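We close this part of the discussion by returning to an individual protein. Part of our work consisted of pairing the sequence of a single chain with a tokenised description of its backbone. The amino acid sequence and the backbone structure tokens for this protein are reproduced below.
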Amino acid sequence: MSIEILTEQILKKMSGIGKWQTEFLKENFELQLQLRGRHNFLSMSRYSDKNESTFRENYSRRFDFETFNLHLSKQYCSKECVVGFDPSYISKSGKQTPGCGYFWSGCAGRSKWGLEIGGFATIDILNNTAMHLIADQTLSTKEHGSLLQYYASLVSHHAETISQVSKYLLVDAYFSRFPFIEKVCNETDLEVITRLRNDADLLYPYVGPHPKRKGAKTKHAGKFNPRNLDMAYFSCCIEEENFRVYEATLYCKSWKRFIRVAVMHKYDEQGNIKSHKIYCSTDLTLSGIDIFIYYKARFQIEFLYRDAKQFTGLEDGQSRSESKMHFHFNTALTTVTLAKVIYHLNQPLESRNPFSMADIKTQYFNELIIDLIFQECGIDPHDKKIIPIKNKLLRFGKIRA
């Protein structure tokens, strides 16, 4: 299956997509895999028979990437999926682009001048991969009160789409704070899975008999110590050679609610606790095993951003228009998802190799050059003598030939 065929199949399931837009999207997604260098309008025109203004005009038109990627996820992901949310820093110089400001860069370990997108992705647990859903640029957050509340408003805005994939929203430890948790839980039906600080203030629920006395009943039975667990509340759900995971239901003071907790202990060679992590969920029925496995899969969304930045030009957008930037960000991330479906998820599980965007980009560029040479030299690409030569040339330069 080619990227053009897959794109056309998904577009047929959507309404309001004209023939011209269909042809443009089919070519545009393939073009992102053929391009070498910066992914901007000028470079696109050099690799295409369309001029620069054509790309500018089409990038300003609205396209429902959310529905497009939702169809992809439903058709090609396994039945066990969660939705991950994570902001990503986008480098950008100048001061005239809407949304420019100081945002946290995980690679640099500090805030840097540029842009930021808040991206949602379907995280396939069984296939251990992430597929893009939608990305929104972080613009003005003043009307929401704080950055965390702004992120929560994004979740609320896309809650209907998220719930069609899973009821679980997966976020990293930065979001394990009251403003975000309260807004998401109050405004949506989603359950949050995240990681707490290692010194999180949790309390054991009191389960004993209440003495006859004045005043309120006893609610809590002591403070939680992550290195010295009360086994009357905790049970071991995962036991490996160098780590164990314990599960329990505890009360979180900062969230003002009971939560399901999975505590991981890592051990040294002497059997002493070397380190610990606290994972949790607002769903009290979720097992500690699922909390631990789901959170471990969260990092797949980081690989999605990495591939889009390195290979499909996520940081190369030259426009200063909100609509064009939105189209560009989602094009870059959706292209990675399309490539992942064709060259990874479509392969049988037992013969599936690690996903490599570098090899896919190499193959598409090789194919572009080969077809151009054949066309200029008048060579029939379907000739029996040419086919094995073409297949050999398509693999030229691949890491995994």
Q: What stands out?
A: The mean pLDDT is 89. The first helix runs from residue 3 to 11.
